[in-house]
Amino acid sequence: MINLLIVDDEKLIREGLKILLSVNKDINVVGLCSHGLEAVQKCKECDVDVVLMDIRMEKCDGVLGTKYIKALNKDIKVIILTTFKDDEYIKSALTYGASGYILKDSSSEKIYETIRSAYVGNVVVDNEIADIVFNDNTLKDSGQKAIKEFNLTNKELDIIRLIAEGLSNKEIGEKLYLTEGTIKNNISKILSKLFLRDRTQIAIFAYKNNLMND
Question: pTM value?
Answer without folding.
Answer: 0.69
